[in-house]
């Protein structure tokens, strides 16, 4: 009887240790990666890092940990546009994780190189609003973009680094061309 009690206690102890280790491993794997200081040292650096991390040819894995490290814990990514069937203009609010889940497989399957070609910056204290005009290509050596639009970045400098608070964007369409003033830089 005593042996059965000891075996039962040992099984409980081993099970508890295993569950504790699994919980610790899960918690550690969810700890966000620290940003590379070069990626977040300046407004220019974080903008370049965002474009760089989502860009790549088809079948190229993206560094989603690097992507996550650029965003504030409460950040949102907000695509907006007109529904082709209904004509209704709407937005979706995504966390960086939801963006990775929804868009990551498409970016990696089809190839996507987003390049900034004009920027309008408004900076006050520790906040910045950046209208970043982009064009997108499927392959790094493509000459003609398949897509253009404007990303509206909201950024925060907490005194130590820059954070992406939000990216709100709209792609150019035949009936909504990018105005000429957003096709050249203004800082």
What does this structure look like?
The chain has about 190 residues and is α+β, with helices and mostly antiparallel strands. The protein has helices spanning about 1-30, 35-40, 45-55, 65-70, 95-110, and strands at about 70-80, 90, 115-125, 125-135, 145-155, 160-170. The chain has five helices and six strands. A six-stranded mixed β-sheet has the order 2-1-6-5-4-3. The longest helix is centred in the N-terminal third of the chain and has 28 residues, at about 1-30. The chain starts with a helix and ends in a 16-residue tail after the last strand.
At a glance:
This protein is an alpha+beta fold and 187 residues long. Helices cover 35% and strands 32% of the residues. The protein has a six-stranded mixed β-sheet.
What's the shape? globular
Number of strands: 6
Runs with pLDDT <50, length 5+? 15-31
Global mean pLDDT: 88
Q: Strand fraction band? A: 25-35%
Question: Secondary-structure element order, as H and E?
Answer: HHHHEEHEEEE
The biggest beta sheet reads: 6 strands, mixed
Q: Cα distance, first to last residue?
A: 81 Å
Class of secondary structure makeup: alpha+beta
Q: What is the overall number of helices? A: 5
* Helical fraction: 25-40%
Biggest sheet: strands side by side, in what order?
Answer: 2-1-6-5-4-3
Q: Give the radius of gyration.
A: 22 Å
